[in-house]
Amino acid sequence: MALRLSAHLVEGQIRYTIPEEMTVGSFVGNIGTDLGLQPKRLVSGKARVFTAGGSEYIGLDSEKGHLIVKERIDREQLCGDLSACSISFNVILENPMELFRINVDILDINDNSPVFPRGEKEIEISEAALPGARFSLDSAIDPDVGINTLQTYMLHPTDHFKLNIQSRADGSKNVEMVLQTALDREKKTNHYLTLTAVDGGKPQRSGTAKIHILVLDANDNAPVFSQSSYKTSVIENAIKGTLVTTVSATDADESSHNIQYYFEDPSAAVKALFAIDSESGEVRVTGEIDYEKHKQFKIKVTAKDHGGLIDSSEILIDVTDVNDNTPKITIMSFSSALPEDAGLGTVVAMINIQDFDSGDNGRVMCSIDRDLPFKIVSSLTNDYSLVTDSTLDREQIQEYNITITAVDGGSPSLSSKEIITLKISDVNDHAPQFEKKTYDAYVLENNSPSVSIISVKAEDADWGPNARVSYFIDDGSLNGDPLASYISINSDSGVIYAVKSFDFEQLKSFKIQVKAQDGGSPPLSSNTTLNIFIQDQNDNAPQILYPVQTSSSVVAEMVPRSADVGYLVNKVVAVDVDSGQNAWLSYKLQKATDRALFEVGAQNGEIRTVRQVTDKDAVKHRLTVVVEDNGQPSRSATVIVNVAVADSFPEVISEFTNFNHDTTYSDNLTFYLIMALAVVSVLFIFSLIAIISVKIYRWRQNRLFYKSAPNLPVIPYYPPVYADGTLQRVYNYEMCGTTDSRMSDIKFVRPYSQNTLVNMSRAGTVQREKTEQEEDADLSLEVRNSFTVLAFTCIHCTVTVFSPMSSYEI
């Protein structure tokens, strides 16, 4: 049954029982079924077996969830003479970590026969030995346990001897041969017996030993030990030569001082660790005693006199444990990296600690430093888990060196340490943070596209892809256009560029939202506000608002001759669409007919008289005023102010009639006049050709018509609109004008009327003659007027006025 201790740690125990000596690959149990684990969980969790001792007798088929025998299991080799034998191991799963304790009990089978230390033994017995004398025999060894171990002995033949079997407190059996009838050396010197040891297994197994009895001459008394069993103890790691115990035996014969002591069929361990003095019976340490290997020794000792009579006793030596083993720390499972958002109780490592000492010497305490966000939790016997005890933050601490300390309860205590390095893996838990909440950027107008404006930067406390910051501009519009048409941003560096050239007069400032987004999943982002201010450049010249300049007329300001000093003549008003110092305007008088008479206010543009006007001052004055801004470099505009110094208007008109002809036009005006003259000339040539062609054509048509007129009948003709027979009166005017309207003139030409009707023949004759004359006159007139248009831009038009009484030709 599994016991869940936390959300991330599952601990439990399950027990299986199998016999020893199973073949490799044999089925032990199905932990998938017994622990409720799905096969895919075993595969994804990388299920594996961990054994503290290092030897893995049991393996795991993670795909099926089956425990199988991995190595041959010999219970006698594994557990010795212990009746209860089991092996324990852990099954570990990861992601998340889970720990299961598996115990497998090993059942004994009767696979060992009783075996005597020696196959043949020789015993010397005096013929004087009395019935009832006892002779110790070698005990057979059967490593099996329970019913399968040694059960009884049998002796054959039994004519002189019988067996005496004694059970010891530990369950073992001591066998002795007891003399039933006296021996006679003279009759039979040698006796051969067979000792059989039988176990209780099925099938039953047995072992035999040969006993050779040599009958000696009379020796009345056998040695007798002072104790039937000697019990003592020795500490492990006792130095060589340490006295363990002393055995002694007495003999009623006078030669009791000739008793010899020796170990009877000692094991290899006894031979290596202990020795007995054959004369004094002292047992001393001769090797390195290790409690973890041998906790107790049973040594059979024999005392023999010179006559060959013997007695046997047993020495029981308990080894006292000394705290000579440091705890052994084994990391069963360890996650070298842990995400920083791991919850409380998340398993970091599974630890197994073994101390082969016993009692308090083997009782272990496991701990780590207290200032770490982890703790040690005891899960199963000798097993511990390192789990998280508080929240982790990689941005504060990226790596932990955790020292695991195991201390036993001995005096003095022994300890061991194991250092593991745990890296905290990053989780995208921090959004990028801009260095400023608001950025201000300034860019000069008329900038070139793609110019760098500013660089924004955001830092992300995360690591790796989670800290890779990309920059974006939030969607939006400005003046109906998307922001992307104004600026762009490098997504990697955060450098912001201008997409177009800015004009301060149209756009002075705007703001955008810049977003910084990391590369985590899901991504985190933050915003900052960027205020972009367009800085003015002196790219606009001042504009004159007043006085208004026209090319078709001259405006003059009249100043009376009685004007005092400071008389306000006019005020020049100008504006500059730039801003700041680029729009600071100053006025100055560039040229003047008389500089001593007028001045211009540098700040307000007011034109005032400097002195009293006199009669000697000219009537007309031309002032050129320059308006200049304060930019670098500065820009300027000029205005011409005409001033008339006079007391009456007619005087002003007469003076300014030809004023315009003295004017020096600017280069641009001259260029436009030349272009206009060229265009008019071309048009005139084409018009002249067209007029001449039309006139010639009409003249020829009229001559053909009048030549055929006498053959036509005379029909009186009346205009259709006028009932009284009156004809339209035509007025002829000729108007010629130059580019200057003051030089234009107009004259009236030939008013006439027709009040009578004539017959068609007379009218035709008169009309034909008149037509011919008029055609010639008109042709010459039009040619003359056409040349006049070339020189003076003359305008020739005919106005027909319908009147009941008269008509005029213009």
Automatic annotation (TrEMBL):
Annotated membrane topology: Single-pass type I membrane protein
UniProt-annotated location(s): Cell membrane
Gene Ontology MF, one: calcium ion binding
InterPro entries membership: Cadherin-like_dom, Cadherin-like_sf, Cadherin_C, Cadherin_CS, Cadherin_N, Protocadherin/Cadherin-CA
SMART domains to which the protein is assigned, alphabetical: CA (SM00112)
Gene Ontology CC terms, in alphabetical order: plasma membrane
Superkingdom, natural source: Eukaryota
Main location: membrane
Keyword Membrane carried by entry: yes
Transmembrane segments: 669-697
Record function comment: Potential calcium-dependent cell-adhesion protein. May be involved in the establishment and maintenance of specific neuronal connections in the brain.
Protein name: Protocadherin gamma-A3-like
